[in-house]
Amino acid sequence: MPSLKLAAHFRETMRLLPILLVAFLAACTDQAPSADQPPAETHQTPALEWTKSPDGAMVAFYKNVSAYKCWPDGSDYDCLQAVDLHEPYEAHIQTAVSFSRGRVSKLPTEAFETLGPSSHAHYNCSIDDGTMTERITRNDRLLIEESTSFPTRYSSAWEAAFVKDFYSSNNLSGIEGYFNCPALGEALSSGSLETLNTNVIHRALLDFFPADPTDLMAE
């Protein structure tokens, strides 16, 4: 009868249950790391190696994708970061890079480090495939963004006065991280991240906002 078969099956299952439980626990024990086993390897970005550039600033590079240039400023550093945005299939694109800037108390240790406190508003920009995009973020959240064509002969989608007013009107900290994005893009357009290790990328270039774009070309 069905009920008798079910009862017999149930008894057989209950008889085997302790054996199955012991086998399961043994398998889990075999997979768990023992105290003698070394911890699993973690893949971390190698520490940055800093050197002094010919113009006296400190520079560091991570492979061919990230670079820093930091100028001593009292007990702090005024740092520029550049990140190469080229994809393998974009060799035809001359300029594909993003820039950010920030004041830090010690030299960055990671290849992709946020410069300055996260609570500050961060101006940054990217240039890729003939388009320059400027944006302001805070806590990794976008506040405002605008794009324009590149090259722009050192003109920007945003005037310097607009950016400074945006920071002031919205009680934002971090205006010291603002810089002349199109001027940097133009300076790197005929070079690479390695150009940061030359006097082509100088601190005055970051803060120069000419009323007449041709003023900068004469520098």
UniProtKB/TrEMBL annotation:
Residues 1-34 form the signal peptide. It comes from the Bacteria. The keyword Signal applies. PROSITE patterns: PROKAR_LIPOPROTEIN (PS51257). Keywords: Signal. This is Uncharacterized protein. It comes from Qipengyuania gaetbuli.
